[in-house]
Amino acid sequence: MSAVPVAPLASLDELWFQVSGTLCNLKCEHCFISCSPTNDSFGYLSLDRVMQLLEESIAQGVKEYYFTGGEPFLNRDLVPMVEQVLQVGAVTVLTNGTVLKTDWLKRLRAVDQSSRYSLEFRVSIDGPTPEMNDPIRGERSFERAMQGVSLMCEYNFLPIITMTRTWDEADDEQILGQFREVLKQHGYARPRLKVLPRLKIGAEAQRTAGYNQFERITPQMMEGFDVSQLLCNHSRVATDKGIYVCPILIDSPAARLGETLQESQVDFPLVDGACYTCYQYGSICANPSSKKMEA
Amino acid sequence: MRTKIACFGGIYNNYLAFEAAIEDARLRGAEQLYCLGDLGAFGPYPDRVFPLLIDNNIQTVQGNYDHSIGNALEDCQCGYTDPRDNYFAAISYEYTLENTATKNRDWMKELPVEIRFSWQGKRFLLCHGSPRKTNEFLWESTTSTAFLERLTDDYDADIILATHTGLHWHRELKDDRHFINVGVLGRPENDGTTHVWYTLLTLQSDEQQGVSVDIEFVPVEYDHQRLAREMESENIPQEFIETIRTGWWTTCLEVLPIKERRAGKY
Ligand code: SF4
Ligand code: SF4
Ligand SMILES: [Fe+2]
Question: Domains in chain A, ordered, with CATH?
Answer without folding.
Answer: 6-281 (3.20.20.70)
